[in-house]
Amino acid sequence: xxxxxxxxAASVASLGEQKLLTAIRRWLGRSAPLAPAGMGDDxxxxxxxxxxxxxxxxxxxxxxxxxxxxxxxxxxxxxKLLKRNLSDIAxxxxxxxxxxxxxxxxxxxxxxxxxxxxxxxAAVARAHDLPIVGGDIxxxxxxxxxxxxxxxxxxxxxxxxRTGAQAGDFIAVTGALGGSLPxxxxxRFTPRLAEGQWLxxxxxxxxxxxxxxxxxxxxxxxxxxxxxxxxxxxLIPRRASADLRAALTxxxxxELLFAVRGGAPAAHRLLAAWRRAxxxxxxxxxxxxxxxxxxxxxxxxISAYVGFEHLKS
Length: 313
Ligand SMILES: [Mg+2]
What we know:
By secondary structure, the chain is of the alpha+beta class. The chain folds into two domains: 120 residues, CATH 3.30.1330.10; 135 residues, Phosphoribosyl-aminoimidazole Synthetase, Chain A, domain 2 (Alpha-Beta Complex). Helix content is 28%, strand content 23%. It has eight helices and ten strands. The strands form two sheets. A five-stranded mixed sheet has the order 1-2-5-3-4. Strands 7-9-6-10-8 form a five-stranded antiparallel sheet, sandwiched between helices. Helix 3 links the parallel strand 3 and strand 4. The longest helix is centred in the first third of the chain and has 18 residues. Bound molecules: magnesium ion (MG).
């Protein structure tokens, strides 16, 4: 059976990423546990035997033509492959422990390109003391896909997941958003590992994720049931090249988005401690979760902005 269809209604494009994930969960049936032990968070959290660190697992590819093109130096493409996975470990407050890489390569792939790709990846791995312990190489005529599986562990008694926020919690974000492609941030970013490990130790932080598909889309994963995010556009920290729409929808920010419990006093204490710990990394409160019945003048209508959705064209 040919896996492709020219009929949109018969193809994965008719579902988009979110509905396809729901379908895959159904097809897997009892083999697919609920998050955080299974699909649905930045990493899967694997239960550990008593007294051992909890394991984290995540996987992400870089695909030629999708995540990098001829304008991206191979060193940056290799670094990006590891860093986007590190960002998922950061989002749980974890640390990386080992990685494996699956390559799907055209036989015509340039050796000097591939060497630079691996040198870029190795530089990031060394910076995090991370061993690359294996992988696989397969033929893929006409394409180049590198997929990295990253294993990590928790650094405190808990992993920070996407669920846990409540109405009333403030919403905070690291760094600046938008314009990731023109500014080259999408391959030059620094994964927020130290910051994630610091935040997981702060009890007032209740839920966290790393922004990959844009604030407008990713905020939904953090929003508690029967609530809505009240976000104020002029509070959102933007990269120099980015307008408000870009900051909300561009994606590939790889910044940490999290919820803070305890009202304004807790948020102020957190911000003050943050500035001492990370004087060079901005941290900004951009809004608050509220019961769905509550509205606020000046809050953005997030639903008017659509973040990046995989498979939809
Ligand atoms: Mg993520």
